[in-house]
Amino acid sequence: MTANATAIQGRAKVDAEKTEIRDCVIIGGGPAGLTAAIYLARFHLSVTVFDDNTSRAASIPISHNLAGFPDGISGAELLARMRAQAAKYGAETCLDRVTELQNGDGTYVVSSSTGNILARAVLIATGVVNRRPSIPSTQHDEAVARGLLRYCPVCDGFEVTDKTVAVLGAGSNGFQEAVFLRSFTKDLTLVSPERLDGLSRQQRARLVELGIAIKQGPLTSIHLEQEAIRITTETGSLVFASVYAALGSDIRSELAAGIGARKSDDGCVLVDNHQRTTVPGLYAAGDVVIGLDQISAAMGQAGVAATTIRNDLCKITTLVRR
User: Fold this and answer.
1) Strand pairing of 165-168 and 188-191?
2) Which one, of 152, 72, 82, 56, lies nearest residue 299 by Cα?
């Protein structure tokens, strides 16, 4: 984050005990939440973003598939620019985690450690949390920063073209990711983190057909080397240029579900074509809903959500310039 963006964010930090009703509170400070904040602020609506600094985008060393950045941009820099842009148009930021969401009579109460805020509408943009391999946090973060450990083959499969790659996963998650990556490299191994790999006979046959090796678990260690990453199981160790963790993720949909919003079987918040949830006045965008977990997709959903929020608010209040 740049010093200027930090200063802007500091000035925008909200007093959560305000009695005024915000037009919209956004829960989540990732690409979806910040895109919506920019739109809503430019609609001349009052908007507060709750950002608990857990956006997955922040951990991206550099993204090369985001349109408009031909030389790439880091996730941290992208978020800093978006925060500054939202603040420029009047969006407020509260650097805190929302602990409770209550649905009153046409008004939402958003609670955090700094108090309560009232809102006419709420956008859930809380995203998901990756399930990490069992390695120390500092080692994990170093591996991600160096491109030795990766989470998104859609984002950066191009970067491992023709390199020695492992997929760490079991069952359908591991199988699907390995098959996806096969179009980038022929030197591919699926490593099960446990003794049982969860693969069906048909899946095993498909992996063999594609020339994807299978390494049985359990995983005993992951070690970072100078230009590679070493995975060791009970049957030996292998060295790779990159390892993709395909261990699944946890969807942060608890706040929406807590006030009755419907979820999919895997926990995503269900929305209509305009990002409305099944609860009036509650919207959702980004990785917390069903769709492609990509920054560009999150931004698109956020633009739809913000415009829907603006139009829906017009039905219950008069939006005119004074």
Assistant:
1) parallel
2) 82
Cβ–Cβ under 8 Å, residues 51 and 29: yes
Q: Which residue has the higher pLDDT, 99 or 12?
A: 99
- 34's enclosing H/E stretch is helix 31-42
pLDDT digits (tens, 9 = 90+) for 296-314: 999 999 999 999 999 999 9
Query: Exposure of 115 by Cβ count < 10 A (0-12 exposed, 13-18 middle, 19+ buried)?
Result: middle
Contacts of 163 (CB under 8 A, 6+ apart): 185, 187, 240, 241, 242
pLDDT in tens, 211-222: 999 998 899 999
In the chain, the domains with their CATH numbers are 3-129+249-314 (3.50.50.60), 132-245 (3.50.50.60)
pTM of the model: 0.90
- Give the closest residue to 316 by CA, choosing from 48, 19, 21: 21
